[in-house]
Design a protein that fits this description.
By secondary structure, the chain is α+β, with helices and mostly antiparallel strands. The chain is built from seven helices and four strands, in the order ααβαβααβαβα.
Length: 178
């Protein structure tokens, strides 16, 4: 795929992955795409842990998505999971939150993750965001610093199947031009 429009149209939430590991160079390229994302005051609050080692990944799925978090059990088919964290110790984000009432680090994280998802499509990979998980066991399992907060998980791998596009709202439903 060559154009951004093609990548945007091809991106899907993948919930069934082929039993094939993702090459380290491709995982690094996906992280590089996030590294280049813009952020408030260029603070770059994101931190990522790529979990591709099978035993640790299985434990991450069991502890982070087990129990009452049943809807995401499909994530076990992903050959890698990127744990997206915010470094919540950044002073400019704390000040901005108090003044504006906006959690800019979450906006920054969303931008970085979408850069990752689009880069993954370009590389022939698929991704799926997971926002429903148990963060405490992940914090402990991955030995994350206390200032890091797990915000999102991103499964990544070669799609076994690519779902049909979902119905999208018409542009007139989501936008007004004045």
């Amino acid at each position: 795929m060559n154009t951004l429009d093609e990548l945007i149209h091809a991106r899907r939430s993948i919930r069934k992955y082929a039993d094939r590991p993702v090459e380290r160079a491709k995982l690094e390229a996906v992280i590089e795409a996030a590294r280049l994302a813009p952020s408030a005051c260029n603070s770059q609050p994101w931190r990522f842990v790529v979990v591709a080692e099978p035993a640790i990944r299985a434990k991450l799925i069991e502890e982070g998505l087990g129990g009452v978090i049943v809807p995401n059990s499909w994530a076990g088919s992903a050959p890698a999971v990127i744990v997206a964290c915010s470094d919540i110790d950044l002073i400019n984000h704390k000040i901005a939150e108090k003044v504006q009432g906006v959690e800019y680090h979450l906006i920054d994280m969303g931008i970085a993750l979408e850069h990752m998802a689009l880069k993954a499509v370009e590389l022939g990979l698929g991704t799926c965001y997971i926002g429903w998980f148990n963060a405490k066991p992940l914090q402990k399992l991955l030995k994350l610093p206390g200032s890091w907060k797990v915000e999102c998980l991103l499964t990544i791998g070669y799609p076994e199947t690519i779902p049909e596009p979902t119905k999208r709202k018409d542009i007139n439903e989501i936008c007004r031009f004045i």
